[in-house]
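Changelog-adjacent note: as of this version, every example in the card shows the full chain rather than a window. The one below runs 120 residues end to end.
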Amino acid sequence: MLFLLIAGHALADFPLQNGEMATCKDRHAKLPLQKSVPWVYWLTAHALVHGMITAFIIGWWTGNKELGVVYGMMECAAHWIIDAFKCEGYTSIMVDQLLHVLCKALWAFMIAKGVIVLTF
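Full-length structure tokens:
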């Protein structure tokens, strides 16, 4: 599952993130497009894509789509915060990517240990 989570991250962070999104999610960017679509929308949309991919992978892997959604929401929040820190210049692209991979490892560890259990 960890491989799928990391591969899903690579998919969402590179081919599924176009140039406009990569630039406009930074509140310091000054593209004309940001006048009609604020930076926070771009960053949130990008984080939601990551959350959706994580939710799908974990839901499929565990057979528990509700659990997948919980982890997808956690991924969305973590991704938003990590990318916001990078956009503010607090981290480099290397630290940004390392933090994202560490989140995936944490999700896989938490699932393996049954930290969050949902039964319906």
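Structural remarks: The mean pLDDT is 95.
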